Amino acid sequence: MADFYRKKKKVCQMCAKKDVNYKDVDIIKKYISNGDGKILPRRLTGTCAKHQRQIANQIKKARFMALIPFVRR
C-alpha cells in the first residue's frame, strides 16, 4: 500500500490572538516576499481568508505611510 504524506494544516496566527497592525513593521515583513515586495498568498502564510484581507489592508496602509517600500531593489 502506498503511504500518503499529509501536510499538517497551518493555523491562522491572527485567529490565535496575534494581531497585525500597520505600525508593526517587523510583523508585516513576514507577510511580504523578500525578492520583490509582493504580499504572500494564503497558502504560504497559513492565514484564513478573513485575516488575509486584513493583512493586505494593513500592508497597503504601511506602504502609503512610507513605513515599508512598495518595491524592493
Largest sheet: none
Helix content: 25-40%
Amount of beta strand: under 5%
Task: Please give the number of β-strands.
Answer: 0
State the low-pLDDT regions, or none: none
Category by helix and strand content: mainly alpha
Q: So what's the overall shape?
A: globular
Please report the number of helical segments.
3
Quaternary structure type: single chain
H-E order: HHH
What is the CA-CA span between the terminal residues? 50 Å
Q: What is the residue-averaged pLDDT? A: 87
Alpha-carbon Rg, integer: 15 Å
Question: What report would you give on this structure?
Answer:
The protein has helices at 25-28, 42-45, 49-64. It starts with 24 loop residues before the first helix and ends in a 9-residue tail after the last helix. The longest helix is centred in the last third of the chain and has 16 residues, at 49-64. With 73 residues, the chain is mainly alpha-helical.
Would you spell out the secondary-structure blueprint of this structure?
Elements: H1 25-28, H2 42-45, H3 49-64
Top keywords for this entry?
single chain, mainly alpha, 3 helices, 73 residues
Brief summary of the model shown:
With 73 residues, the protein is mainly α. It starts with 24 loop residues before the first helix and ends in a 9-residue tail after the last helix.
